[in-house]
Amino acid sequence: MKADKLKLILSMTTFGTIGLFRRYIPFPSSVIAFVRGVLGALFLLVVHLVKGEKIEKSVMKKNLPILFVSGVVIAINWILLFEAYNYTTVSVATICYYMAPVFVILASPIVLHEALTVKKGLCALVAFIGMIFVSGVIETGLSGTKGVFLGLGAAVFYAGVIILNKFIDGMSSGDRTLFQLGFAAVSVLPYVLLTEHVTTLEFNPKIIILLLVVGIFHTGIAYTLYFGSIGNVEAQTVAIFSYIDPTVAVILSVVILHEHMSALAAVGVVLVLGATILSEISLKGKDVVSE
Fold first, then answer.
1. Which DSSP category does 287 fall into?
2. In terms of residue numbers, what domain contains 153?
3. How far apart are CA 106 and CA 114, in angstroms?
4. Is the pLDDT at 195 greater than 80, yes or no?
5. Are 264 and 133 in contact (CB under 8 A)?
6. What angle do CA 120, 121, 122 make, to 5 degrees?
């Protein structure tokens, strides 16, 4: 159990640093999303082969449409998140992203026919108020909120992934993620080729290393640690530990990137994180948000 908790802590800490690395990769978000999907899927495939695990073709075939759609949604989610980092601080983008569980709560009664409890409704309201504080709209108006809307857009699409995963049947988390990352890379490739001048991108050792870190470390290794631990850790522990991610992101944003956070925004961070932790406390580990 201690080893599994350590794996979970390491994976969440890793997810929390991705915004910092994105800051230093001067490539379009779609290109980074493609590289992340390819490297992450390849790493998970190698892990899969080394373990000698087999995927049942009948199970894969049955889930293929949902796996593909969820892969596309993941790709869009990544692009929006990486774009959010370009237009606002890492801390604000990450807190916006962690509104995903709130969106799941609001969508569940309609999509999953799950009852919306008073507790979850209040948590969603508190998180929404906190989100207003974080966005800075009270202090500066709507100007400069593009990054906030991009972060919230990323959260909406990740909420979509969480909901879609509930309809995938008979596949382990690792197998599911392998296919989703692969489909994310495949789906974003045409967009990259149509919208970006790939041949003009300048690769140097620093950029290559950063891309490898994001693809292998932040995706392949982090996802392996994450899915290798959540099945052996209590759901409440997983829910609480998942907030190591935004906490690390906020700290790095202020300490390393020297990004400013107002007192009102700090209050908003506490409201969003506190409300979402309370709302997720009873969720199953496999449904907890991760980047």
1. G
2. 2-287
3. 10
4. yes
5. yes
6. 90
Give the side-chain half-sphere CA count within 13 A for 225.
Answer: 22
Q: What is the dihedral of CA 74, 75, 81, 83, to 10 degrees?
A: -170
- For residue 188, the tally of other CB atoms under 10 A from its CB is 27
b/e burial code for range 40-60 (CB count within 10 A of at least 16 → b): bbbbbeebbeeeeeeeeeeee
Residue 117 φ then ψ, to 5°:
-75, 160
Among the residue ranges 38-52, 128-142, 211-225, the one predicted with the least confidence is: 128-142
The type of residue at 112 is: L
Which string of b and e fits 251-281 if b means at least 16 CB within 10 Å?
Answer: ebbbeeeebebeeebeebbebbbebbbbbbe
* Whole-number Å distance between alpha carbons of 102 and 277: 10
Three-state secondary structure call for residue 185: helix
Mean pLDDT of the region 187-201: 89
Q: Is 246 exposed, middle or buried (0-12, 13-18, 19+ CB in 10 A)?
A: buried
Residue by residue, DSSP assigns 31-48 as HHHHHHHHHHHHHHHHHH
Task: Count Cβ neighbours within 10 Å for each residue of 112-134 and write b for 16 or more, e otherwise.
Answer: eeeeeeeebeebbebbeebbebb
- At residue 285 the predicted structure's pLDDT band, cuts being 50, 70 and 90, is very low
Which of the 8 DSSP states describes residue 59?
Answer: H
Half-sphere exposure of 237 (CA within 13 A, CB side): 15
The count of other CB atoms within 10 Å of the CB of residue 190 is: 9
Q: Based on the structure, what is the number of domains in the chain? A: 1
pTM (whole model) above 0.90: no
pLDDT bracket for residue 284 (50, 70, 90): very low
